[in-house]
């Protein structure tokens, strides 16, 4: 069934209602060399919010603070009905070892900066952006919970952290009565499916809504790149700004172009664009609550929003799944094997939660 931005869903184990597509704002501002100027960013915001979209995603570090500043300017009158999500932990001020990291000083400093730039008294959702391998997780969780109790943050969430650590953190939060993690932001697309091994099953089990980022692999799944772009330099096709970034991140490869080729073929048969089909695939995946859109121009946003209308049959979904398949590895392969399933289920049909 076709979806709309105002078909709100609950985010993880919370009562917070969010749109099935969120607006990523890492493209608000040009400081990183691949974003939108103020006027175009405003158009992206107005279009998304005008259609009933309510989940806006930013971070303290995006475009050196411009993303939060522009968003703060745009949300002004709509503040109450919007869900503002930001992130902390990746700030780096030269000479200040405490500017970044997961710890309490970085957390409180970052939140004050975000509140100021966003021009608001509270953040609806705050993510730990990247786990730092160092700060005791009790310190992270207690700091997040303190901010919730102070009313500066309403819900807390996590990104870029191994599944074993997130599940440990959720258990600690539950046992101590601290605010639970309600969302997991993770790179997830037809060309990056490793989250299916442990992160997504964990999120489903522990009540974290999955919010996929880079759902087009930085634009690769829009089908605009060809083999000539692998290893090329300079501006990409169709005014693309992210070719060199995608090459550096390893999302633009022979393998990902192969997957993008299958998406393009199916999209052609269905009368949709490849970007719409690739985004629709994420919307059909178990555990996904809201997929993060990345768009630099109004035309790209329009294209991406139309993913809500794409209906994939089981056969089409299976074709896409096969194109982007990865080995799950152990213990998943063993657990999925027929002899083990017979032994462990005792003949019952059970869901494998992949
Ligand atoms: N938690 C994290 O660590 C993390 C990491 C990354 C992103 N995020 C969040 O996720 C959001 C989305 O991530 P993303 O920007 O990587 O998403 P993406 O959708 O994979 O890539 C977006 C890029 O693809 C191109 N594009 C988008 N729509 C297109 C279309 N219809 N046709 C052709 N090209 C298109 C544009 O690049 P060109 O300029 O080249 O056209 C655009 O900048 C971000 O804004 C941010 O909020 C979070």
Automatic annotation (TrEMBL):
The protein's Enzyme Commission number: 1.1.1.-
GO-annotated cellular components: cytosol
Keywords assigned: Oxidoreductase
Domain NADP-dependent oxidoreductase: 20-323
Coiled coil: none
GO molecular function: oxidoreductase activity
Name of the protein in question: L-glyceraldehyde 3-phosphate reductase
Classification lineage: Bacteria, Bacillati, Actinomycetota, Actinomycetes, Kitasatosporales
């Amino acid at each position: 069934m076709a979806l709309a931005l105002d078909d709100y869903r609950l985010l993880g184990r919370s009562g917070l209602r969010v749109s099935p597509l969120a607006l990523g704002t890492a493209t608000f501002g040009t400081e990183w060399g691949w974003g939108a100027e103020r006027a175009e960013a405003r158009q992206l915001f107005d279009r998304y919010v005008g259609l009933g979209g309510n989940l806006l995603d930013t971070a303290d570090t995006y475009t050196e603070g411009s993303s939060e500043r522009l968003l703060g300017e745009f949300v002004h009158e709509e503040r109450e009905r919007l869900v503002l999500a930001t992130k902390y932990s990746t700030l780096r001020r030269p000479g200040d070892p405490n500017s970044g990291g997961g710890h309490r000083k970085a957390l409180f400093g970052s939140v004050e900066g975000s509140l100021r730039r966003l021009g608001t008294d509270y953040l609806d959702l705050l993510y730990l952006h990247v786990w730092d391998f160092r700060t005791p997780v009790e310190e992270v969780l207690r700091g997040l919970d303190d901010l919730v109790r102070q009313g500066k943050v309403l819900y807390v969430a996590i990104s870029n952290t191994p599944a074993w650590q997130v599940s440990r953190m959720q258990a600690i939060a539950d046992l101590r009565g601290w605010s639970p993690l309600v969302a997991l932001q993770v790179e997830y697309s037809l060309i990056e499916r490793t989250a299916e091994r442990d992160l997504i099953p964990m999120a489903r089990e522990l009540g974290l809504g999955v919010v996929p980022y880079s759902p087009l692999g930085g634009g690769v799944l829009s089908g605009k790149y060809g083999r000539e772009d692998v290893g090329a330099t300079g501006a990409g096709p169709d005014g693309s700004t992210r070719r060199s970034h995608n090459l550096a991140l390893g999302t633009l490869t022979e393998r990902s172009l192969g997957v993008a080729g299958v998406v393009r073929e199916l999209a052609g048969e269905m009368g949709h664009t490849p970007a719409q089909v690739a985004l629709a695939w994420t919307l059909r995946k178990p555990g996904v609550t809201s997929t993060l859109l990345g768009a630099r121009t109004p035309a790209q946003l329009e294209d991406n929003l139309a993913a809500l209308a794409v209906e994939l049959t089981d056969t089409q979904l299976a074709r896409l799944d096969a194109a982007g398949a990865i080995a799950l590895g152990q213990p998943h392969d063993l657990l999925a094997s027929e002899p083990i399933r017979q032994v462990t289920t005792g003949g019952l049909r059970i869901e494998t939660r992949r």
